[in-house]
Amino acid sequence: MSTTPQTPFQILGEVGVRALCDSFYDIMDRLPEAAGIRALHAKDLAPMKEKLADYLIGWMGGPPRYAEKHGTVCMTEPHAPYHIGPVERDQWLLCMDKALQEIGASDELVHMLKVPMFRVADAVRNKSRPSSATTNPNIIAAG
Ligand code: HEM
């Protein structure tokens, strides 16, 4: 008798979450639409692949890898130095959507993650507006 998976981690396993995060940052690195958030990151994305996977393994219902290594799962502080508004959030989510496609995620998994992934990305957002770098330079005073 097979049981229905209750968590994304049960579907992906640790190897699958790591593959997702490898794809995520490879996509961020090459996708013109994600150039804005790529520029916020260091040149070498390998440490980020590992950290995001550590974080998502626990977040998806698996063992708390990030908490074991860093003693916290709070994402406010590591993101505080960066301007993360709706544009940056949506670029991040676009990379995640494409990474899920690239690893061949099932419709069930994509559906399971859709709302929670938006919520976690929106929780990392620390600005309500696009940065001046992404707003129209011809608009001098926007409301
Ligand atoms: C919403 C748009 C987001 C942007 C623009 C963004 C950007 C960044 C940047 C620039 C860093 C520092 C990278 C470096 O040191 O080179 C970082 C770190 C990190 N981000 Fe994000 N991030 C976003 C959302 C998220 C979300 C939703 C998660 C988790 C689900 C996440 C997980 C992490 C982790 C685990 C780190 C490493 C923290 C550490 O240093 O231990 N990020 N992020």
Describe this structure in words.
It is built from 7 helices and no strands. It has helices at 8-30, 35-38, 46-59, 65-70, 76-79, 86-102, 107-124. The protein is globular. The chain is 60% helix and 0% strand. The model has no long low-confidence stretch (mean pLDDT 92). With 143 residues, it is mainly α. The longest helix is centred in the N-terminal third of the chain and has 23 residues, at 8-30. Bound molecules: protoporphyrin IX containing FE (HEM). The site of protoporphyrin IX containing FE has 21 residues, from helix 3, helix 5, helix 6 and helix 7.
Brief write-up:
The chain is an all-alpha fold and 143 residues long.
- Helix proportion range: 55-70%
Radius of gyration (CA) equals 16 Å
Task: Compute the number of helices.
Answer: 7
Bound molecules: protoporphyrin IX containing FE
* CATH architectural designation: Orthogonal Bundle
Give the rounded overall mean pLDDT. 92
Summary keywords:
143 residues; mainly alpha; Globin-like; 7 helices; 0% strand; binds protoporphyrin IX containing FE
Write the layout of secondary structure elements.
Blueprint: H1 8-30, H2 35-38, H3 46-59, H4 65-70, H5 76-79, H6 86-102, H7 107-124
Bound molecules: protoporphyrin IX containing FE (HEM).
Protoporphyrin IX containing FE (HEM) binds at residues 37, 40-42, 48, 51-52, 55, 70, 75, 78-79, 82, 84, 88-89, 92, 120-121, 124-125.
